[in-house]
Amino acid sequence: MVTPLLSVRDVAKTFTMHLRDGAVLPVVLGVGFEVHAGECVVLGGPSGAGKSSLLKMVYGNYGVDAGQILLQHRGQPTDLATASPRVVLELRRDTIGYVSQFLRTVPRVTTLDVIAEPLRSRGVGREEAQTRARALLSQLNLPEQLWSLPPATFSGGEQQRVNIARGFVTDHPVLLLDEPTASLDAGNRAVVVEMIAEKKRAGAALLGIFHDEEVRAAVADRIVDVTAFAPRRAA
Amino acid sequence: MSFAPIYNFAYLDEQTKRMIRRAILKAIAIPGYQVPFASREMPMPFGWGTGGVQVTAAIIGPEDVLKVIDQGADDTTNAVSIRAFFAKVAKVATTTHTAEAKIIQTRHRIPEKTLGEGQVLVYQVPIPEPLRFLEPRETETRKMHALQEYGLMHVKLYEDIAKHGRIATTYAYPVKVEGRYVMDPSPTPKFDNPKMHMSEALQLFGAGREKRIYAVPPHTAVVSLDFEDHPFEIQHFIEPCALCAATGVYLDEVILDDHGGHMFVCSDTDNCEERRDAGHRGKLAGHSLEAAE
Amino acid sequence: MTGEPLLRVSNLSKLFGSRIGCTEVSFALWPGEVLAVVGESGSGKTTLLNCVSTRLEPTSGVAEYRMRDENWRNLYDLSEAERRFLMRTDWGFVHQNPADGLRMTVSAGANVGERLMAVGDRHYGRIRSTALDWLNRVEIAGDRIDDEPRGFSGGMRQRLQIARNLVTSPRLVFMDEPTGGLDVSVQARLLDLLRSLVSELGLAAVIVTHDLAVARLLSHRMMVMKDGRVIEAGLTDRVLDDPREPYTQLLVSSILQV
After folding, report:
1. Which of A191, C58, C118, C240 is the most exposed place for a label (fewest CB within 10 A)?
2. Residue of chain A nearest C213, judged by CA positions
3. Where is the domain boundary, A171, A186, A219?
4. Which of B154, B156, B157 is most worth mutating to test chain C (most C CB atoms within 10 A of its CB)?
5. What is the pLDDT along chain B (293 residues), one digit of tens a residue?
């Protein structure tokens, strides 16, 4: 049996809303699934089932109350759920990538630098990082005159492509995708589908949320139904 | 008939002199370090040499011979009055000859003639703190001296070069004493800085208003601060002294008329006179000075 | 984890009489790591910064620093000479008000060059070219090198202060509200500059700010302070996106969204 690159075990999460008199909002309970190299697992379920929250937990953006999130990191299983902030940052740099729904832009940083940054932080030289950024941007059909501009004023679709390029530019073994095709046209959707296929061939483990059924059908190897982890409301 | 009041020898009372001597001894023991002392009111305004006068009063003895110069000259108001003051209150012999003097009190010059063992040069100091230009807090400058944080001194020299293309400080040029304390040599021209280095004479500095005494004992290293690529240099004069033809001495410019006429003459009047007595003649010796008057 | 921290703070407390400045604060900081300390005015974040940077002596607690010779020293056991040397070589301190960190009456070039001269550089040409290089890095035109910062705008002064601090390649920089008091567009430029300098130079930094956006942009980790105590700490994006403590949730929910 091959070790999965990502293994989520018995994860539970609740939000406590202190501003609303400490209302407790359970999110998920008993989450368990694995993602192996070369496959794309899609989180399924209706809006509000906790798909996005789960993705954020796997990235360490949300904390978890219980369970393990094991990543194969430098040949060792490392539990992101209990890792110190420094280890989480290291995991993000080397092992787990994330394409979020929205781009958080930094003032004055050009599109090329936004995309090159994950490479630069892994020690790739500026020239090479920018070359790889350019290749991805042209693959994603982002007009070249935008490359040297900060993406803050771009349209939703343009920002999303910048975001995708930033997520795909590195070769993280585990890649999380939060609706990467939501605001793309058919042509660019097809490009992203092909990019995902490429990642799979390269041996990456992908975990994503795709509302577009066509895209989902094209990329998903398995679907994990998040409603199965719904906590019993009541308690 | 004389109404001259009866003063203690050299004006100050003995307790005050002791206090000042203790400060002087400490200053000698820590070359370049500014020792606070309880500066007294003197019968002259601050800025007229009250610090130097107190130091001189504390060290002078009845057998000593005193010379007083102001900008190198023995015959300017300040020099004449201080010389007269000590002639009156200490009844000491005075002189204008550098070689004959035991104590030389000075404002803004070091005599051209090399000072020898046993001689004491007493400087009148207006502002003893070389760091004050950039750091006005006394608490902070003291700490900087204590910890030898002298980067700021070079900031001042840097500013000079940045503004003028060279170190434009020409007087009160900062020095480092015995590799330890940075010291303000008082407003002497930087021309005189090299004379302080390894001098056989004892050099005492008194700042009356600021209540500080510092010293450079004989045979002490005194090095002017500079940059590797902008080394310390003294002023050079193109012409020799118009009266005594001396070269390699500090010259003052004297305006002769309203038509741009001028000449350069020795700032050290004693040295100039001695040379003229020995037969040296500058190009204007003998007539022009009188003509101008 | 690989690598040793640069700074270890344990149980640091500072009392002003019976009033608490900050109390029982512990954290470690690694090379290249930026830690944001956030909280409202009076939460003790500046007191903490002043204690850790040895500008203030704590009432109790220890702050150990790994010196350039790899020896660990308790900062409060250092002699004043050692401490001041550390402050002008291996550390930087960026004040909210640039006038507190600059010499307003000497030129920009001398402001940057001062630290070099303080550690014994005696070559005017070299000092000047290093200063020019740093002005360039903080986006101040080279022809302003001989101008006094009195004539500079707030943003330029702040950038000059940063250059002045970074010229000796410090390993640790303390910043007290570095973008406070600046216009929003000027802030953005400064943030971007700080961000790239910190990552380029691999600086460790402790940044005190009440601006959560600044914390998100610049820091890897953050500590939330209230009434002198650290009430929540962790990965910056986790504290901001999944805050646990009631006070942190209040802070985060109080940000104006643009």
Report:
1. A191
2. A106
3. A171
4. B154
5. 456 668 899 999 999 999 999 999 999 999 999 999 999 999 999 989 999 999 999 999 999 999 999 999 999 999 999 999 999 999 999 999 999 999 999 999 999 999 999 999 999 999 999 999 888 999 999 999 999 999 999 999 999 999 999 999 999 999 999 999 999 999 999 999 999 999 999 999 999 999 999 999 999 999 999 999 999 999 999 999 999 999 999 999 999 889 988 899 999 999 999 999 999 999 887 654 444 44
A chain contacts of residue C250, beta-carbon cutoff 8 Å: 18-19
- Provide the domain count of chain A: 2
| Structural domain that includes position A114 | 103-171
CA proximity to C116, closest of C105, C104, C129, C103: C129
Nearest CB neighbour to C191, from listed A17, A89, A107: A107
Quick one: A34 and A113 in the same domain? no
Residue C199: list chain A partners with CB under 8 A.
Answer: 121
Spatial CA neighbour of C160 closest among C187, C177, C141: C141
Task: Tell me: do A137 and A226 sit in the same domain.
Answer: no
A32 plus A52 within the same structural domain: yes
**Which residues of B belong to the active site?**
32, 241, 244, 266, 272
- CATH code of residue A182: 3.40.50.300
Spatial separation of the C-alpha atoms in residues C114 and C126, rounded to whole Å:
13
The verdict on C80 touching B (C-beta cutoff 8 Å) is yes
Residue in B closest to C126 by C-alpha: B229
Find all residues with CB under 8 Å of B279, minimum gap 6, and list them: none
**CA B106 to CA B73: how far, in whole Å?**
9
Q: State the best of A89, A103, A112 to mutate against chain C, taking most chain C CBs within 10 Å.
A: A89
Collect all residues of chain B within an 8 Å Cβ-Cβ radius of residue C146: 162-163
Nearest to B158 among C81, C105, C110 (CB): C110
- Global pTM value: 0.88
CA atoms in the 13 A half-sphere facing the CB of A222: 13
Residue B165, Ramachandran bin (φ over 0: left; ψ between -120 and 50: alpha; else beta): left
Mark B169-208 as b/e (b = at least 16 C-beta within 10 Å). Answer: beebbbbbbbeebbbbbbbbbbbbbbbbeebebbbbbbbb
Given A61, A63, A106, which is nearest C195 (Cβ)? A106
